């Protein structure tokens, strides 16, 4: 017979380990996410070109550049904002309540108040509220697809993990980890602290941007110097040089890249894939080998009939009836 923790022990453990919850890292304000879309060298060149176009009175060209800039920014912002909130999906799959034994009594408490050394009581259909070591069990089976990707329940005799689901049997479990110290919490931590790496596409675009910037400055400087040697008016020389610099900027390049990547992102979104950075689509497209488990990861674990060959219509109907009976 288990007595569980006393109220005093619960308060001590709660003060020491904190609440049993998946903490969301402080997200960046949406306005910061939006303005971060304007950091690349090519975008900075376009902003400079837009300002020069306004200065020269080329309003149509300035509006076109602005449209390209904001299209690129809004698409990138939308994808990053969705990814910033991805951790909420992990918070939603945790248990809302838990049954524990405290002071020798079975009680129902909010799952956030479960503490290490608590004694969890598990039954079929329940979401496990914390990581724990099994003290006693009866035909316990747990679906651990959230952690392993395996769609079939597994027999458990040693440990259970937060967020997994009891599919059969009962158990008494001593809690060993709560909140961010659980396996699910470690996954959440990896998501929120993942380092942003520079993709091959970004490297190439930055390189092109720097080359274009250097060439623009060099050409404008050369034209200005030649015009100065020819004793041309300084105002005319300045306007001509700036116009040449603006014309040399490929305003359509960011738009083409953004639209192409956005199409890839939308196609992936239809397959429930979340892309944090648009250029990641290009990196994913360069993958040649993927090592992964199959059932529950690449497949749904459900058998489906694709084609049937029969001698006549009667046999076809018979096969359909058998299949309906077998897989219903």
Low-confidence stretches: none
Number of strands: 7
Order of helices and strands: HHHHHEEEEHEEEHHHHHH
| β-strand amount | 5-15%
Range of helix content: 40-55%
Instruction: Provide the structure class.
Output: alpha+beta
Number of domains as seen in the coordinates: 2
Q: What Rg do the Cα atoms give?
A: 30 Å
What's the oligomerization state? single chain
The average pLDDT score comes to: 78
Please describe the biggest sheet, giving its number of strands, its sense, and whether it closes into a barrel: 7 strands, antiparallel
Overall 3D shape: elongated
Span from first to last CA? 43 Å
| Number of DSSP helical runs | 12
SSE arrangement:
Layout: H1 7-17, H2 30-35, H3 41-55, H4 59-84, H5 87-92, E1 97-102, E2 105-110, E3 119-122, E4 131-143, H6 145-148, E5 154-155, E6 159-160, E7 165-177, H7 183-192, H8 200-229, H9 234-248, H10 252-270, H11 280-285, H12 313-327
Antiparallel strand pairs: 1-2, 1-3, 3-7, 4-5, 4-6, 4-7
Helix pairs in contact: 3-4, 3-9, 4-10, 8-9
Short characterization:
By secondary structure, this protein is α+β, with helices and mostly antiparallel strands. It is 50% helix and 14% strand. The chain has twelve helices and seven strands.
List key phrases describing it.
328 residues, alpha+beta, single chain, seven-stranded antiparallel beta sheet, Calcium-transporting ATPase, cytoplasmic transduction domain A
Describe the structure.
This protein is of the alpha+beta class and 328 residues long. The chain has two domains: 7-23 and 91-189, Calcium-transporting ATPase, cytoplasmic transduction domain A (Distorted Sandwich); 30-84 and 197-270, no CATH class. 50% of the residues lie in helices and 14% in strands. It contains twelve helices and seven strands. The chain has helices at 7-17, 30-35, 41-55, 59-84, 87-92, 145-148, 183-192, 200-229, 234-248, 252-270, 280-285, 313-327; strands at 97-102, 105-110, 119-122, 131-143, 154-155, 159-160, 165-177. Strands 1, 2, 3, 4, 5, 6 and 7 form a seven-stranded antiparallel beta sheet that branches. A hairpin with a 2-residue loop joins strand 1 (97-102) and strand 2 (105-110). The radius of gyration is 30 Å and the shape is elongated. The chain starts with 6 loop residues before the first helix and ends with a helix. 21% of the residues are buried.
């Amino acid at each position: 017979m288990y007595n569980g923790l006393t109220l005093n022990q619960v308060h001590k453990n709660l003060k020491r380990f904190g609440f049993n919850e998946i903490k969301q890292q402080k997200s960046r304000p949406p306005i910061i996410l939006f303005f971060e879309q304007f950091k690349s060298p090519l975008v900075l060149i376009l902003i400079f070109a837009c300002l020069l176009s306004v200065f020269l009175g080329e309003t149509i060209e300035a509006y076109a550049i602005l449209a390209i800039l904001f299209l690129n920014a809004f698409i990138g912002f939308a994808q990053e904002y969705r990814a910033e909130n991805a951790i909420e999906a992990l918070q939603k799959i945790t248990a809302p309540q838990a049954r524990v034994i405290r002071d020798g009594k079975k009680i129902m408490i909010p799952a956030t108040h479960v503490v290490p050394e608590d004694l969890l009581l598990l039954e079929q259909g329940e979401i496990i509220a914390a990581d724990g070591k099994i003290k006693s069990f009866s035909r316990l089976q747990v679906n651990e697809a959230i952690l392993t990707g395996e769609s079939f329940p597994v027999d458990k005799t040693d440990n259970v993990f937060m967020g997994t689901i009891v599919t059969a049997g009962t158990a008494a479990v001593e809690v060993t980890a709560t909140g961010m110290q659980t396996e699910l919490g470690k996954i959440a931590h990896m998501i929120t602290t993942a380092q942003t790496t520079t993709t091959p596409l970004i490297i190439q675009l930055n390189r092109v941007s720097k080359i274009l910037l250097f060439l623009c400055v060099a050409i404008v400087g050369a034209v200005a110097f030649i015009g100065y040697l020819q004793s041309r008016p300084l105002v005319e020389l300045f306007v001509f040089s700036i116009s040449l610099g603006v014309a040399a900027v490929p305003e359509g390049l960011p738009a083409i890249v953004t639209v192409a990547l956005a199409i890839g992102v939308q196609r992936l979104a239809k397959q429930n894939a979340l892309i944090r950075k648009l250029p990641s689509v290009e990196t994913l497209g360069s993958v040649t080998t993927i090592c992964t488990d199959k059932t529950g990861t690449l497949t749904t674990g459900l058998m489906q009939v694709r084609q049937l060959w029969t001698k006549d219509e009667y046999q076809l109907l018979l096969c359909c009836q058998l299949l309906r009976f077998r897989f219903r």
